Amino acid sequence: ALDRTRVNRTFLPGIPIPAAIRITPDLADxxxxxRLIILAIPSQHLPAVIRRLKPFRRLWQQAILVxxxxxxxxxxxxxxxxxxxxxxxxxxxxxxxxxSIAADVGHGxxxxxxxxxxxxxxxxxxxxxxMDDRLRLYTSTDVAGVELGGALKNPIAIAxxxxxGLGLGSNAKAALITRGIVEMARLGTALGARQQTFWGLSxxxxxxxxxxxxxxxxxxxxxxxxxxxxxxxxxxxxxxEGVPAAKAAVALxxxxxxx
Length: 259
Description:
Elements: H1 2-5, E1 7-8, E2 12-16, H2 27-31, E3 36-39, H3 46-53, H4 57-60, E4 64-67, H5 80-88, E5 93-97, H6 102-106, E6 111-116, H7 120-130, E7 135-140, H8 143-165, H9 169-190, H10 201-212, H11 215-224, H12 229-234, H13 242-256
C-alpha cells in the first residue's frame, strides 16, 4: 500500500514519500551492502525486529546502525542501544534523538537533533550523511545521556498534558517542565549519563517540544479530561512511548534509590 499510494495514511497523512525512496518488505534486501541503517522503530517492537536482522549479519556488518527509538525496555530496563548491543553486537552503533516531532520533519520544517556514539568518527559520519539545510545534527559521545533524554521526557510530557487537560494553567506547566528536567538529570546521572547533556537539545530541547505537542502530550490531555488510559490507547494506532517508559523510569528510580 505504501509503495502504491506513496503516502503513510496512518501515521503521516498528507506527506508524500519521495520517489527516490524504495520501499521493500524484504529485510535482507533492505540492509544488503548499506553503509547506514536507521532503526526508526518504536521501542516496544525494536527487539523483535533486530532479532530478524541477526541471520543477515554478513550483509550489514560494516554498516553504522542508528537507533532512533525513544524508550526503555520494560523487561530489562535497558536503553535501546544496550538492547541492540546485546542481540546484534554491532561494530558501529549510534543513537539519534532530539526535538523532532515527526509531522514537522515530514513537512520539511527546520529541525535539530543529536547523534551520539562512543566512536566519535561514527557520529561524525552519520552527521555528514544526514544533515542538510533543514535538518541540523550535533554530535556527542554521551550515548546514555542522549538516549535517556529521549526516553525520560515522554512521561513528563504526559504529565504536562494532564496539567493542560485539567486546566491548571501556564504556571503549573512551567513548574512541571522545570522540575521534570531536574528529575530526568538526577536519574540519568545515576545511570551513567553526563548531567550537562540534559540541558541540551536531546534533553531540555526535546522535553519542551514534547510538552507542547505530540502523542504523549495528547494522551496526557485526554487523561486530564477524565478518559481512562485503556480507552485512550484503544482509540489510536499510534505507539505512545511514554506509557511503558513511565513504568520503566519508576522501576529504575526504585532500583537506584533516586527520588
